[in-house]
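Give me structure tokens for this 325-residue protein.
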Amino acid sequence: MDTPQITAPPCAPSPVPGDATPSSGVIHINFRHAAGFTVIGNHLTQHRGLSLAAIGLAAHIQSLPAGARIGIKHLAERFPESETRIAAALRELEAHGYLHRSRVRLADGRIVTRTISYNQPGTDASTAAAPQPRTRRSKPAAPLPTPQPPPRETAPEPRPTPALTPQPQPLPLPAPVLVPAPTARTTPPPPLPQPLELTPELQRVATTLLADLRRHAPQLILSEHDIHTLAPGVATWLERDAHPDTIRHALTTDLPNPLKHPAKLLRHRITTLLPPPLPGAQDVARARPGVIVVPLQNCDGCDRAFRSRHPGHCRDCRTDLHTAA
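Here you go.
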């Protein structure tokens, strides 16, 4: 009966004064790395303007060795994010100064993309210095006793120093040639086709056809200046016996989405899709040399048309003449 029975759990220990463990939130358990680590600043990991994907991608890029591949397709194979999300994260890093991409031409003519990663935005490559290893401060050594001067002896003759052979210096690498980004076309577009004779009737039909295009394709809204500029090209189509429905189909089929410049697209199609003039009957006959067209003749007896090389009577009249004879 005098044995104590412990039925209640022991109480939690009271906090030690000066304990740095927070009562809520994250608690860090840090281990000092001796190898295989990357130093990243809090300005990146706690950046207010970057997304979480961009911060993680920047940390991954800074942990890679020099020369590692960080293309969009290569990163999409490495991580579960899509190519669109990775491309957006790379653009975020470029906008905030953590990444710079440029196209350079190598000495062999190949064009490659050069990517520079900055662990601190705004750092110049020429001013960035490599980190120096830390050395322990050595304690001042105790003064040594003054040695006694040795007895004087005859100094030996100095040996000749061998001449150093100069080492060949490596040739400097050629400076990379920056290739400018592709710009708009500098060559002027081909001229708009012009009809042989722009009659008022052709001008009216061509203007009406261009103004009516927005009923069939709402994105083809043209100004009055654009309609008067493109009207001679459409008049050339009409002059070459192209039906208005044919012209409308050629100008409104397979439009790009979105359409930024309707007038430029119509000018290109009017110029490049222009049909040739219709050939005449004589041109078609010359194109088929094996076919001989026999002309029509009027019969001298019944005035009926028949084909023959020479005028005279038709087959029925010739039969009647032979029977009468």
